Amino acid sequence: MKKKYLIFALSCVFSLSMYAQDVTVSGTVSDQNGPLPGVSVVVEGTTNGVATDFDGNYSLPNVPSDGTLIFSYIGYLTQSVSVNASSTINVTMDEDLEQLEEVVVVGYGTQSRAEVTGAIVTVGSDELSVLPITSAEQALQGRAAGVSIINSGSPGTAPVVRIRGLGTMNNNDPLYVIDGVIAGGLGDLNPSDIESITILKDASTTAIYGSLGSNGVIMVTTKKGNRSGKTTVTIDAYTGLQYTDERFDILNTQQYLQYANDGWGVVPTSPLSASGNDTDFQEALFQTGIMQKVDFAISGGSESSNYRFSAGYLDQEGAIIETGFERFSFRANSNFTVGKFNFGETLAVSFNKQNPERNLGDRSLLEHAIKTPPYLTVYNENNLGGFQGPSNGLDGQDAENPIRVQTLGSQVNKSSSIIGSLFGEFEILKGLKFKSQVGLEYRNFNNNTFRPSYNDDSEGATHSSSFAAITKNSGLRKSILLTNSLNYSTSFNDIHNLEVLVLAEKQETRDDILNTNSENPITDEQDQVSNTASFLQSTTNEYNRIGYLGRVNYNYDQKYLFAASLRRDASSRFGSNNRWGTFPSVALGWIIAKEGFLEDSFFNTLKLRGSWGITGNDRIGDYQYSATLSSDFFYPLGDGTLATGTTPDGLANPDLKWEETTMKNIGLDFALFDRKITGAIEYYNNTSDDLLMNRPLPPTLGINAGFVAENVGSVETSGFELNLGYSDYEGDFTWSANLNLGTSTNEVKSLGANESLSGGSFEDQDISRIEVGEPLFFFYGLVTDGIYQSQGEVDAILDQDLEDDGTTLVEAGDIKFIDRNGDRQINADDRVKIGNPYPDLTYSLNLSANYKSWDVNMFISGVSGVDVYNTNIYDLEGMPRLFNSGTAVLNRWTGPGTSNKVPRADGAPQNYNSISDRFVEDGSYTRLKNITLGYTLKNTAVDKYFSKFRIYISGQNLLTLTDYSGLDPEIGNPLTNDGNARQYELGIDRGNYPQPKSFLLGLQLSF
Q1: Distance, CA of 415 to CA of 447 (rounded, Å)
Q2: How confident is the model over 804-824, as pLDDT tens digits?
Q3: Which long-range contacts link 695-698 to residues 24+ away (Cβ below 8 Å)?
Q4: CB 623 within 8 A of CB 709
Q5: Torsion angle defined by CA atoms of residues 399, 404, 407 and 410, in that order, rounded to the nearest 10 degrees
Q6: Residue 64: beta bridge partners?
Q7: Residue of 584, 578, 576 lying closest to 210 (CA atoms)
Q8: What 8-state DSSP symbol labels residue 320?
């Protein structure tokens, strides 16, 4: 009997030992997009573990058959799987949406998304990757409420970016920060290198940048390698074409000759006028351009380091002939950890070449194209230069041949840049870290223009040059930024969470610019400057800034939030009396969703937050506080001769100080129903004071500039913002929608002693104006009321003197303007507000869907309540003298009742030289900005070689709904990159380069 019990006991022990023996478990870990490399697979309660390889595979020996495996990966929910003696376990990881949203980049660090108290918007790489874009700014259009992006169709031209409207009559450009380095813009940055873009919009987030944050901050974080131990190679390429099919409806040769004869009494006698030639100069000007882009990156790392190296090439031909942009970009990012010491670098090198639109005679190419008579040919080999133009005596007009303007000779703008940083961070004590970073921005440019001699008509051309003209401009910027900081983070009693940051920062910037031009009357074969009719000028500007920052972030039980900061900055741009500025901010937040009464509700997130603070602006130009000198000044002597000398150019003002903006913001963030519905509502009010303006000085003071810079202006800007999103990530078919809305209104509160300031101008008259009680740069002019149909109607309204021929200046057929003050005269006293160039509302809708291997993205953006001053109407319908015109002039006024819109030809000067609402149009539009259809190969033979294999087709700007009569209602300004000058061109269409439509075929690979 005992033997039986012994045999039974031994059998049980043997069975248990057999059951509990170790096994080797292998399998594949993936997510909905495919295999996941670098996933941690660990036996629960032990250190026995491995990471999945590049293909998501793992093999783990010595696993107890009754054990549990823990699968974990950043951004995904951790999973526990019982082994149950299985040798194969495959796992599909689910994204942790809360964790994905947990950390966001803020100024000088990161912060938990849930604990953010300011107005911050983040655009991730997944959102950027669906747009085949050429510049990072383009990717922001419509992606964040309150951020306005105005693009130009000209390749290589930076978009105009505005955050929460206009706050100053000076530079409204935001601050750009790339990996902690302050940069002049994002034009040199390859969008494929961007991990995320964070936009800081309110004082609690921007005040930490003190003197630089008043216009908002755009922070870019570039991609880094992972620490999975595997090397990843990615290739992203596309090719396609772009074009514009929008044209102005202008007169053909037969219509032009009839118009010249009937309207002006001119019969062109040039042989070409009877040749039957009919040239469409718009068609000759536009082309179908080719676009191509290739990006290559390799990344990887280990437990103690990571790296990413990339190279990119972009070649974009413009929709206008001989315009284009080419960019070579290289980037290297690396990080290393040795014990408590973390250090690394970022380095980006870019080489750019732009062939811009050329302008002669202060006219755009499009203006030349719609004015040139259609009977002229484009080319004439018998003329010097090989082009044909009008003869003033025969043709009665002087438009230039736009093809000659754009193609004769060359204009090439080249630039290169180096932006990088070195940093080191050491953990002194637990939670206490010291970080030091040095950043460098190094840029140079060389803009060269060569125009050989030409003569557009052998019979006495209107346009000719007997010499070659050479212009060479070059410049160099060197900016060094040194930042040292101490950061302390701690938690105690599990409910008190504290972070303290103290920081010191110094920036030194030097700009050296050289401008030269000369003529060569001997040969067209040399494009070098000489002493013949030469001009030489060089300029050096130095800028220094030093700042100190203290910041505290505190939350109680992750429900009640508090943040405060104080920054002190000194800038070399201000006088000795006010060099330092102080910029405080404070913010509060309440995470209502964590209160007991909402624990079981459908709210995943419900957070109320508010902030107040003061930010500064010192981007006003250098040395304005000082009495600079002007050379080459001519002094009249008693004998009537002139002596060359030097004079004070401006009046010194040692009290010149910071422009300051007081920002107030209140917001509500929410997420409902397992985060399927998310959103944010914001209200902001910004008041900018001490704005820099020029006060006119009496001539008796003898100051050459005629003005002194003073801090006297004030502007208030306010608005609402709404972000609303829906996401459905369940099943084979998933989709999401995101809607952004933003309003912005501004009002000038003070101009000091100035009654008004002038903005943009046209035909020697001001188009826009700055005035107390009105928005910045509003259009200012006369109001039309149809056309005078009879002389009696004219005489009943106006008092006029008779001309020498017995007629009056204004007659029947001329435009009728409203006499606002009833003095029976039409003059500047009758001008009023006739439009606002800044939109009341910006909006966008982003739609994305996935079905198995298919993905589609549709992006719609638009603006509402915006006006455009369309100077093209002056060219098409103004009829100042004989030019080619729009077909509308065929229906001009020729007698009573014939037209109440288009005046008579050769009429009163007021018909064309008066700034009026005749040229103002509604610029509202809705645009299909992008649509992309992609297909990712899965479960095929390519899976053996590629972790991602996606092909896509994409179209941009395919459909625009608008009532605007111009070629493009989105009025980008290609004339200047100067932040101050761009303000004055807001909403003025001078024949601007229209945005093209494009079709692209792309490929994305990872292996």
Answers
A1: 8
A2: 666 678 999 999 999 999 899
A3: 695/752, 695/753, 695/754, 696/754, 697/651
A4: no
A5: -90
A6: 22
A7: 584
A8: B
